[in-house]
Sequence to fold (168 residues):
Amino acid sequence: MTVNLYTFVGMYSRLLDTAAHILAKGAEHAQATGVSEADMLEWRLIDDMFPLRNQIQAVANFAGQWPARAAGVEMLPTLEGPQRVAELQAALAAAKAHLAGLRPEQFEGRDDVALTVDLGQMSPTFGAGQWLTGFSTTNFYFHLSIAYAILRSKGVQIGKRDLFAGGL
Fold:
């Protein structure tokens, strides 16, 4: 399958702005309701799912790594461990800056370049286009949606409009 992989750079960039926006709204809500930042970042949708902190980390990681993999350039390091809201916001901004450094020509002819990625229990090989369009983008949206759902479930006043905070 051949697609213009560079178009994902703009989409990921806009969605990073959305993640930063909903995280800020969550932090404002927590402060207004007397919830500590640490407690807010541990909010979960369901007990066996990752907390808000990890959902935002995943958004930053997918944006900072998968378009770079598809372009064949250096990726941002994986963001892990406990962070505060300011550090998560900085990670989202760093991923956006990393995306801004990517150029269309870096993606040209890379749709079918085989990439083998270690996913823990398996190491599948797919073309860069399939990784970016199927695996990465699905996961990117999943973690952003779960962060949104966590915040909504805790009473943060966000709605569908907030999902477009980064633009269309």
In short: The chain has one domain: 7-164. Helices lie at 7-32, 37-41, 52-71, 85-100, 128-153. DSSP finds five helices and two strands in the chain. Residues 7-164 form a domain with the Four Helix Bundle (Hemerythrin (Met), subunit A) fold (CATH 1.20.120.450).
